[in-house]
Amino acid sequence: MITAETRRRDFPSLRKLAYLNTAAEGIAPLAVRDALEQYFRDKQLGMDGRKAHAVQWEEAKALTAEFFGLTPAEIGICSCSSEAYNLAALALRLKKGDEVIVNDLDFPSGATPWLQQACPATPRVWRNLSGALRLEDLVPLLNPKTRLVTVSLVSFFNGFRILLPEVLASVRKRSSALVAVDVTQALGRIPLDLTGADLVVSSTHKWILASHGGGLVGVPAARTADWTVPAGGWFNLEDAFAPNRFEKAVSKPGAASFTVGMPNYPAVYAIRAGLEYIRGVGVKKIDTATRLLVLECLAELKKLPIELLTPDEPEHIAGILAFRHPKAEEIHQRLHAANVHVMSHAGRLRVAIHGYNTAQDVERFLKELRGALKAV
Questions:
Q1: Cβ atoms 159, 310 nearer than 8 A
Q2: Contact call for residues 98 and 245 (beta carbons, < 8 A)
Q3: Core-most of 47, 84, 116, 205, by most CB within 10 Å?
Q4: Cβ neighbours of residue 337 under 8 Å, at least 6 residues apart?
Q5: For the segment 107-162, what is each residue's pLDDT rounded down to a tens digit?
Q6: Do 259 and 295 reside in the same domain of the chain?
Q7: pTM to 2 decimals?
Q8: Rounded Cα gap, residues 296 and 315, in angstroms
């Protein structure tokens, strides 16, 4: 686990902060800074630096594969999760009459490609009930026309965690739809079992403590044909410089087709370093230690005059708690002035607890929150 000593050493910016906003931005350890500096040194070598870039690329893919439960050949890296979903929409080649199921606890990147007027499929919305996505509300939406169900393993909005095996079983029983799973709010925070998922997507600047500019994509070998992106580019093509290159373009199969141009190598270096750091600490250790903090924080939040948005169901809780208050922005400003960092948006406050957080962070947050509630 991250100790007091390694916390001071690896996360110097946390010496004065109670930082509880990893669901928006992770605090990168100094190992990520070192990786970005290594990128610059390698870039100074010009073309020769590409040999080092390629090594980092393969290492980042191998680490991602380890976390996703896939092989490196089943991993692609693009620029962000939004790009990944837009490319996935190209690969799916939806037609009029097809249906796609999204949900109202999802981040826009996973839902909006299917809501654009240019998308020929009909979107169906799996709506939450009291902050939870219930299978009994998904079932009526599923039918032979359903081509895709897209979900987040953990909701950015309120931290609700779906039980993926149950969702997959329900979808498989009633349709032949593909299931895309966004693990942005889970990767690096909770152990993952993504068995049966048809597409896995994650951003890289949150819980894995890396940088912006990365989108991790997992395509199981059995789903290669479903998720081969017919996009222009060069890095994603079988032979971009063949003699007949102006006659046809052929994408590499599956995950490799999601990297359409020159990789964002600075982000790749950071991804490798961030995942390596998380692996060194151990996701199970992170989850075990921080789960106690999350549940203790939840217990105290329930005593306060707020509207809790996170369902009080331990099996559906990961690292995020959320609540509403009419004076949310003023509360947020008071917390921030006290060096307690949480997220505030449209009346919603969100607390995200990671492995570098301590019991003292949570106690400080609750103390300042109680004071702010009295003051407003």
A1: yes
A2: no
A3: 84
A4: none
A5: 999 999 999 999 999 999 999 999 999 999 999 999 999 999 999 999 999 999 99
A6: no
A7: 0.97
A8: 15
